[in-house]
Specification:
Rossmann fold; alpha/beta
């Protein structure tokens, strides 16, 4: 766009080479020039920063990264324009907030008292903001799909009776009140662990992320519920955060969302295990699971009772029949046993004398063998004793002494067996066949030891 040239007139006072303005006159001239150059106003796009309310008016800056720095334009949204734009913002479910990308229309104005150029906002293009939100959301979704994160949390198994629930919400809000009321009125024994956190605004992204992560590490939870009430489209955009989506996907516990919007699905809804429209619906889902589990349990218990009664009745009948069969078979078996017993008694009466005679005969022969056996054993033992006596006699020291052997002992009576057992000057007693000799050692000579090495032969 071509920028208008400033033309402050060609009249030059006679005593000055160039015209001179007061500060106020210059401000007026700038504004007149701006009105001539931008008579229909100007459209500007950027990101809202420093949003603040001063009475009925709203002030903020439009910022844009520009070659390593930031381009900044101050914007004033005065109360009448604000009231006029409110229906349009409600229609598109938008609310001005920091970080929101906007395309706004207004008129440039140089504020003399502050010495700043600003833009008096007159209108806003909602489709630009919605498109920016959608574009950012689509980019995040593409990355999550490429990494396979959309189904990670859905793959977790949600307990059929989820009673231990972690809740991420802003305590004191209508969303928390609605959720808690449903839970308390259900009559189910839920155990809630609540992480009180911001769910909108600049701090919401980090706080929600930390809350989900902390509850995931808590242990013992069946599910984590993330809830908030409805709101403007761009307020709900916090749940389009990639950071929140990734922490939900990485959660070791199934995550349920109830973010209070009936139409849109956030990125958090897409990655969550179960996405529901509202906090009340989220509570209803948990209650429905618990009550359904209880109903199923009661039905199964009733079925078990019915089946048990049937089986017991059938077993009683079968037991009675079995008892009668056993009684009949027992009487028959006893009668047969009595008959066999009588037959065996008769057989025993007939066979006993014959068996007794044979046993007596066997006993007599064994007695004869027993009387003959000790004499033979005794003779054999005497012979073995004689042999042992001869062997022992051959080992008698006296016999060895008679053959010329001697026994030498040192002073303490220990037998001397090696040269190492005595030393020069020791007193020795040598025992002979017919007495003993006492001597003193004057010298000890050991026999030479054979060489331990052997000569190698080629």
């Amino acid at each position: 766009m071509s920028q208008p040239a400033f033309d402050f007139g060609d009249d030059v006072p006679a005593d000055f080479a160039d015209p001179t303005y007061t500060v106020g006159e210059l401000a007026t001239a700038i504004n007149e020039q701006l009105r001539r150059g931008f008579g229909d106003g100007v459209w500007v796009r950027g990101e809202i920063s420093g949003l603040q309310q001063r009475g009925p008016h709203t002030y903020f800056s439009l910022v844009e990264d520009d070659d390593g720095g930031k381009a900044v334009l101050n914007v004033q949204l005065f109360a009448p324009t604000k009231a006029r734009l409110a229906p349009m913002l409600r229609k598109f479910r938008l609310e001005l907030r920091n970080g929101m990308k906007v395309r706004i229309h207004g008129h440039l104005d140089f504020w003399a008292q502050g010495g700043r150029l600003g833009l008096k906002m007159a209108s806003l293009d909602p489709k630009y903001t919605i498109g920016a939100i959608a574009q950012s959301r689509d980019e995040i979704m593409r990355r999550l799909v490429a990494e396979g994160l959309l189904d990670t949390n859905k793959a977790l198994s949600l307990s059929p009776i989820p009673l231990r629930i972690g809740v991420v919400t802003s305590v004191g809000t209508a969303a928390w009140h609605d959720f808690r009321t449903e839970i308390e009125h259900s009559g189910v024994g839920f155990n809630l662990t609540v992480a009180d956190t911001r769910v909108q605004g600049d701090l919401a992204e980090n706080m929600v992320t930390k809350a989900i992560h902390g509850l995931g590490l808590h242990g013992g939870l069946d599910a984590i519920v993330v809830i908030r009430g409805g709101g403007a489209r761009n307020e709900l955009a916090v749940f389009d955060s990639e950071k929140i989506a990734r922490i939900i996907a990485a959660s070791p516990v199934p995550v349920l969302t109830g973010l209070g919007h009936e139409v849109d699905r956030s990125v958090a809804d897409e990655v969550a295990h179960t996405a529901l429209k509202t906090p009340t619906a989220c509570a209803g889902e948990l209650i429905a699971r618990a009550t359904q589990y209880a109903a199923d349990t009661e039905q199964r218990f009733a079925a078990i009772c019915r089946r048990s009664s049937t089986v017991l009745a059938e077993s009683g009948t079968e037991l009675s029949d079995t008892a009668h069969r056993i009684a009949r078979r027992t009487h028959a078996a006893i009668e047969r046993s009595d008959e066999r017993l009588r037959m065996r008694i008769d057989r025993l009466g007939r066979d006993a004398p014959r068996v007794l005679a044979r046993s007596t005969e066997h006993l007599d022969r064994a007695a004869q063998r027993l009387r003959a056996r000790p004499a033979a054993l005794l003779a054999q033992s005497v012979q073995q004793l004689d042999v042992l006596g001869a062997r022992i006699g051959a080992l008698d020291p006296a016999v060895q002494l008679a053959r010329g052997w001697t026994i030498t002992r040192n002073a303490d009576g220990t037998i001397v067996r090696r040269t190492a057992d005595v030393a020069a000057g020791d007193a020795l007693a040598t025992e002979l066949l017919d007495g003993s000799i006492t001597s003193v050692v004057s010298d000890v000579t050991a026999a030479p030891q054979p060489s331990s090495t052997t000569e190698q032969k080629d």
